[in-house]
Amino acid sequence: MNLVLVHGRAQEGKDHVALKKQWLDALAYGMSRANVSLPPGTTIEFPYYGDALANMVAQLSTPLGMDINAKGPNPDTEQDLRGEIILEMAAASGITDDDVRKELGGQPTQKGPENWEWVQAVLRAMDRVPGINSRFIDLVTRDVYVYLQYNAVRMTIDGIVNHAIDDDPCVVVAHSLGTVVTYNVLSRRNAVPAIPRLVTVGSPLGINGIKRKLDTPLRHPACVLNWFNAYDDRDVVALTALDAQNFGVTPPIENKSDVQNFTDNRHGIEGYLSDPVVAKKIVELLS
Q1: How confident is the prediction along the chain (287 residues), in pLDDT tens digits per residue?
Q2: Same domain as 278, residue 170
Q3: Are residues 279 and 183 located together in one domain of the fold?
Q4: 156 in a domain, yes or no?
Q5: Separation between Cα atoms, residue 163 and residue 260, nearest integer Å
Q6: pTM of the prediction?
Q7: How many structural domains are present in the chain?
Q8: Per the domain annotation, does 208 fall within a domain?
Q9: Do residues 216 and 264 share a domain?
């Protein structure tokens, strides 16, 4: 059976072979902790879209960026959507309005995602929280915005991932922005052929600003028989469980919230694949 690994953002300029090895090394450590192993004959697919995404994000910073249009019924400005996501991340991290006002020197200003001065102050306040890097959050929300808002970007990235998931049964593992891409790809597939398990780690799918940009109603992809979601509750990108309250689908998603992600930002893929429960969930339906 195939194992498909879908990476997240910030992978541009990397050797995709080395990147795939990084994933597999971390998974091997997790499997050793769980006393399991990949079944013989498992084929590993690693659809790489890092350079394609980075190139399109860069295009949007130039006048030619207008060629990547953002057609849709409810277009959002970049500041509005990114601001909404950042403010939700900040609230989950315990940032209060008083914390933000301190960053503004007590000067009165309108709060909310539409005021970028307020959002920038929120980012500065988040920098004071251990384990949170505002530059990382700023870049995450930029790439998420571009993927969600621009049809040409979304179609290109989705096409790369969709091509790697062929008509044979497979287990799919997705991380970070890759979970949003994978959800979009699998939601458009027929029930057959079935995917025994989808494993998402460090997923931002529960963030309201992201959810409202997905096709509605939210649904459990018909082709997915079992969906397992794992996150470290200190991971600012993975704000919430994908449960009945935050991502209510039928059948419900199984969640694991106690991953101890050892990477600096508690979001890195190595910290997720090294977890023995996550590794076992990936392997057990590959037989």
Answers
A1: 999 999 998 899 999 999 999 999 999 999 999 999 999 999 999 999 999 999 988 887 654 343 455 544 445 677 788 888 889 888 888 899 999 989 988 776 788 877 878 888 888 988 888 777 778 888 888 889 899 989 999 999 999 999 999 888 899 999 999 999 999 999 999 888 889 999 999 999 999 889 989 988 999 999 999 999 999 998 989 978 999 999 999 999 999 999 999 998 899 999 999 999 999 999 999 98
A2: yes
A3: yes
A4: no
A5: 33
A6: 0.89
A7: 2
A8: yes
A9: yes
